Amino acid sequence: MAPVAAAPSQTSLAFLLHLYLLLSPAAVITFHKPKVDPTDASILCNGGANASSDTIKLTNAHYGIEVSRVFYADDIPLWSSATGKLSDFTTRYSFSIDPGSGYPSGVAFFLAP
């Protein structure tokens, strides 16, 4: 009768996964803005948008129709110039739309070269 091979332990699998992740060729790009600094020159407000201590207000409640924009001025590399490969990314935003103003509201996010 042949000996039965034991299944690898969870510790061994975790170690191998950790080793694989350490040795995988990957470039990490971190972009984190938990709060908005009104003096931050990389946040460009256009139209009626303005930055306060921890929020960006896109519209003024006193106007019925208004278009405002906020741009991040610094480049965020989404591809490797050495390999020409695109990067994966994840993004997360928190926003609120006040329905009490009586005017329709909307938000759009975009990436531009």
TrEMBL record:
Q: Which Pfam families match?
A: Lectin_legB (PF00139)
Range of residues in the leader sequence? 1-26
Write out the entry's keywords from A to Z. Lectin, Signal
Please list the residue ranges annotated as the Legume lectin domain.
39-113
Q: Which GO terms describe its molecular function?
A: carbohydrate binding
Q: Which family, according to UniProt?
A: Belongs to the leguminous lectin family.
Q: Identify the PANTHER family for this entry.
A: CONCANAVALIN A-LIKE LECTIN FAMILY PROTEIN, LEGUME LECTIN DOMAIN-CONTAINING PROTEIN
- Listed name of the protein: Legume lectin domain-containing protein
